[in-house]
Design goal:
144 residues, alpha+beta, Pnp Oxidase, Chain A, 7 strands
Length: 144
Amino acid sequence: MSEMTVSDLAKKMKDIDFALFSTRTDGGLIASRPMSNNGDVEYDGDSWFFTYDQTRLVRDLAQDAHAQLGFTGDKSLLGKPGIFVSVQGEAELIRDKAQFEAHWTSELERWFPDGIDTPGIVLIKVHATRITYWDGEEQGEVRV
Protein backbone atom coordinates (compact mmCIF):
# COMPACT_ATOMS: atom_id res chain seq x y z
CA MET A 1 0.00 0.00 0.00
CA SER A 2 1.47 3.35 -0.99
CA GLU A 3 1.12 6.76 0.57
CA MET A 4 -0.26 9.37 -1.82
CA THR A 5 -1.28 12.91 -0.86
CA VAL A 6 -4.27 14.82 -2.21
CA SER A 7 -1.79 16.85 -4.29
CA ASP A 8 -0.30 13.66 -5.78
CA LEU A 9 -3.75 12.38 -6.57
CA ALA A 10 -4.77 15.72 -8.11
CA LYS A 11 -1.93 15.40 -10.64
CA LYS A 12 -3.17 11.96 -11.69
CA MET A 13 -6.79 13.17 -11.88
CA LYS A 14 -6.15 16.46 -13.71
CA ASP A 15 -7.69 15.33 -17.02
CA ILE A 16 -10.62 13.33 -15.63
CA ASP A 17 -13.84 15.22 -16.30
CA PHE A 18 -16.60 12.68 -15.61
CA ALA A 19 -17.49 10.82 -12.45
CA LEU A 20 -20.07 8.21 -11.67
CA PHE A 21 -22.05 10.02 -8.96
CA SER A 22 -23.91 7.66 -6.60
CA THR A 23 -26.52 8.46 -3.98
CA ARG A 24 -28.92 6.57 -1.75
CA THR A 25 -32.57 6.76 -2.84
CA ASP A 26 -35.58 7.15 -0.57
CA GLY A 27 -36.17 3.41 -1.03
CA GLY A 28 -32.67 2.63 0.25
CA LEU A 29 -31.28 1.63 -3.16
CA ILE A 30 -28.17 3.11 -4.77
CA ALA A 31 -28.67 5.33 -7.82
CA SER A 32 -25.73 6.27 -10.06
CA ARG A 33 -25.41 8.66 -12.94
CA PRO A 34 -22.50 10.10 -14.96
CA MET A 35 -21.80 13.72 -14.10
CA SER A 36 -19.26 16.17 -15.48
CA ASN A 37 -17.23 18.14 -12.97
CA ASN A 38 -17.28 20.98 -15.53
CA GLY A 39 -13.56 20.82 -16.16
CA ASP A 40 -13.09 21.97 -12.54
CA VAL A 41 -10.39 19.36 -12.07
CA GLU A 42 -7.85 21.02 -9.78
CA TYR A 43 -8.71 18.47 -7.15
CA ASP A 44 -8.33 19.47 -3.50
CA GLY A 45 -10.81 17.04 -1.94
CA ASP A 46 -13.86 18.92 -3.18
CA SER A 47 -15.75 18.08 -6.37
CA TRP A 48 -18.24 20.45 -8.01
CA PHE A 49 -21.22 19.63 -10.24
CA PHE A 50 -24.05 21.70 -11.72
CA THR A 51 -27.53 20.25 -12.14
CA TYR A 52 -31.17 21.23 -11.98
CA ASP A 53 -32.98 21.53 -8.66
CA GLN A 54 -35.83 19.20 -9.72
CA THR A 55 -33.61 16.16 -10.40
CA ARG A 56 -33.61 12.86 -8.56
CA LEU A 57 -29.98 13.56 -7.65
CA VAL A 58 -30.97 16.68 -5.70
CA ARG A 59 -33.93 14.90 -4.07
CA ASP A 60 -31.65 12.04 -2.99
CA LEU A 61 -29.04 14.41 -1.53
CA ALA A 62 -31.67 16.46 0.30
CA GLN A 63 -32.62 13.25 2.17
CA ASP A 64 -29.12 11.82 2.62
CA ALA A 65 -26.03 13.94 1.94
CA HIS A 66 -23.69 10.92 1.69
CA ALA A 67 -22.33 10.51 -1.83
CA GLN A 68 -19.92 8.26 -3.69
CA LEU A 69 -17.92 9.40 -6.74
CA GLY A 70 -16.09 7.01 -9.04
CA PHE A 71 -13.42 8.35 -11.39
CA THR A 72 -11.49 6.41 -14.02
CA GLY A 73 -8.46 7.75 -15.89
CA ASP A 74 -7.30 6.73 -19.34
CA LYS A 75 -4.89 3.90 -19.93
CA SER A 76 -1.32 4.69 -19.11
CA LEU A 77 1.67 3.94 -21.28
CA LEU A 78 2.45 0.29 -22.05
CA GLY A 79 -1.26 -0.58 -21.93
CA LYS A 80 -1.46 -0.57 -18.15
CA PRO A 81 -4.70 0.68 -16.65
CA GLY A 82 -4.97 4.31 -15.70
CA ILE A 83 -6.16 5.22 -12.25
CA PHE A 84 -9.39 4.32 -10.49
CA VAL A 85 -10.48 6.65 -7.71
CA SER A 86 -13.34 6.19 -5.26
CA VAL A 87 -14.44 9.22 -3.24
CA GLN A 88 -16.83 8.97 -0.34
CA GLY A 89 -18.10 12.33 0.79
CA GLU A 90 -20.73 14.67 2.07
CA ALA A 91 -22.69 16.67 -0.50
CA GLU A 92 -23.86 20.23 -0.09
CA LEU A 93 -26.53 21.84 -2.29
CA ILE A 94 -25.52 25.41 -3.16
CA ARG A 95 -27.84 28.02 -4.63
CA ASP A 96 -25.52 31.04 -4.36
CA LYS A 97 -24.79 32.81 -7.67
CA ALA A 98 -21.34 33.92 -6.46
CA GLN A 99 -20.44 30.24 -6.04
CA PHE A 100 -21.98 29.45 -9.44
CA GLU A 101 -19.75 32.07 -11.02
CA ALA A 102 -16.63 30.75 -9.28
CA HIS A 103 -17.16 27.29 -10.83
CA TRP A 104 -18.76 28.23 -14.15
CA THR A 105 -17.28 27.41 -17.55
CA SER A 106 -18.77 28.45 -20.89
CA GLU A 107 -19.17 24.80 -21.95
CA LEU A 108 -21.98 24.52 -19.37
CA GLU A 109 -24.22 26.71 -21.51
CA ARG A 110 -25.01 23.58 -23.51
CA TRP A 111 -27.13 22.39 -20.55
CA PHE A 112 -27.84 25.71 -18.84
CA PRO A 113 -28.66 28.16 -21.66
CA ASP A 114 -29.08 31.22 -19.42
CA GLY A 115 -25.77 30.65 -17.65
CA ILE A 116 -25.81 31.17 -13.90
CA ASP A 117 -29.24 32.80 -14.29
CA THR A 118 -30.81 29.58 -15.61
CA PRO A 119 -33.97 28.94 -13.57
CA GLY A 120 -33.65 25.96 -11.22
CA ILE A 121 -29.86 25.63 -11.42
CA VAL A 122 -28.05 24.25 -8.38
CA LEU A 123 -24.38 23.57 -7.64
CA ILE A 124 -23.38 20.45 -5.75
CA LYS A 125 -20.19 20.38 -3.73
CA VAL A 126 -18.99 16.95 -2.61
CA HIS A 127 -16.41 17.21 0.15
CA ALA A 128 -14.35 14.03 0.38
CA THR A 129 -14.27 12.20 3.69
CA ARG A 130 -12.43 9.14 2.32
CA ILE A 131 -10.54 8.61 -0.94
CA THR A 132 -9.20 5.29 -2.16
CA TYR A 133 -7.36 4.59 -5.41
CA TRP A 134 -5.82 1.85 -7.51
CA ASP A 135 -3.53 2.50 -10.47
CA GLY A 136 -2.87 -1.03 -11.66
CA GLU A 137 0.21 -1.37 -9.49
CA GLU A 138 -0.40 0.50 -6.28
CA GLN A 139 -3.44 1.07 -4.16
CA GLY A 140 -4.06 3.16 -1.14
CA GLU A 141 -6.13 5.62 0.79
CA VAL A 142 -5.54 9.33 0.70
CA ARG A 143 -6.01 11.27 3.91
CA VAL A 144 -8.23 14.30 3.45
